[in-house]
Amino acid sequence: MPVIKQKVRGNGLSEYIATLQHEVRKPLPFEDETFDAYYSHILYCMPLTISKLKSVSNEKRDQKSP
User: Fold this and answer.
1) For the whole model, what pTM was predicted?
2) Residue-wise pLDDT tens digits, 30-44
């Protein structure tokens, strides 16, 4: 994650892009409709059950702005 943060700062995007690392098995600490967009690196390659992947996907969808 340090490389991503460095690139964000280096391109003057710190005001627009925030990075964080979160344990995907725990609920995300954000209200619904918090985000305009999100990016998840390698989430669907992780050794998670189908039901957990569905749960995480639904949670992310709910937190995205309409």
Assistant:
1) 0.49
2) 888 887 777 777 777
